[in-house]
Amino acid sequence: MPDEAKGIKIEIDALETKIRQQRAVRKEGYTDPVSGDFTEASVVKMRTLTQTSPDEGLRKACFEAGEKFALDNIDDYVELVKLRNKFAKLLGFTDFYDYKLRKIDRMTKEELFTLFTDITDKTKDIFSKIRDLEKENPRLRQPWNFFYYMTGDFTKEEDKYFQFDQALIRWGRSFSALGIDFADGTLQLDLLDRHGKWNNGFCHWSKLVNYNNGEREAGSANFTCNVVVGQVGAGASGYNTLFHEGAMRLIS
């Protein structure tokens, strides 16, 4: 890696740390549409309420709060994008997106966008029918209404099948049935939403599998998701993250 790129990487790491630290201590929540009082709630919980609450006023309040939080650290984010793109170009990529795609997914932007074009072509007729639905419900495409009206009832119906207290045993049984035992690896899980926690599930390998004098030493991994206990829709979301981060990435 060129020395200039190494210097920029140090700047990127410092700026990312600054953003994470500021987000970890900020006060998150929404203004109650009835009382006008501030109600503490994580971004994850507000996102779920926007998708599942039958109260449009509450959905709107959570959506608008999320819009304001999106502007936090905006100047830092702009600078971060500039630094990431500069870093990627020094390594021979067109931009940071190109760098990540090639490194993580082993594909080019052109290959990815071709897939997106194919998906668009196959779904555009279905999406055109939303205009017809909007004639019956003029508020359908309000950003705090769309997801609820399109999936809200289904989310409630499926919730009873995705109670998160059963998630770990189902996860373990699923991979055991596939013959996957992670070969004595150690897994550290952080699954529930809480104040200050990074609000996106992830997995990283704190110790890679290695061989010492021909002897295999098992690896370890940490992964997280953000389940809001008792929140309709949170269980299914948690399952998706648990099986994605705790399976695909661990296995890979």
Structure overview:
By secondary structure, the protein is an alpha+beta fold. The protein has two domains: 3-151, no CATH class; 164-251, no CATH class. Helices cover 57% and strands 13% of the residues. It has helices at residues 3-25, 43-52, 56-69, 74-90, 96-105, 109-128, 130-136, 146-159, 167-177, 234-251; strands spanning 29-31, 38-40, 186-192, 202-207, 210-212, 215-217, 220-227. The strands form three sheets. Strands 3-7-4 form a three-stranded mixed β-sheet, with helices on one face. It has a two-stranded antiparallel ribbon with strand order 1-2. A two-stranded antiparallel ribbon has the order 5-6. The two termini are 25 Å apart.
Q: Layout of helices and strands, plus pairs?
A:
Elements: H1 3-25, E1 29-31, E2 38-40, H2 43-52, H3 56-69, H4 74-90, H5 96-105, H6 109-128, H7 130-136, H8 146-159, H9 167-177, E3 186-192, E4 202-207, E5 210-212, E6 215-217, E7 220-227, H10 234-251
Parallel strand pairs: 3-7
Antiparallel strand pairs: 1-2, 4-7, 5-6
Question: What is the gist of this entry?
Answer:
The chain is built from ten helices and seven strands. With 252 residues, it is an alpha+beta fold. The strands form three sheets. Strands 3-7-4 form a three-stranded mixed sheet, covered by helices on one side. Strands 1-2 form a two-stranded antiparallel sheet. Strands 5-6 form a two-stranded antiparallel sheet.
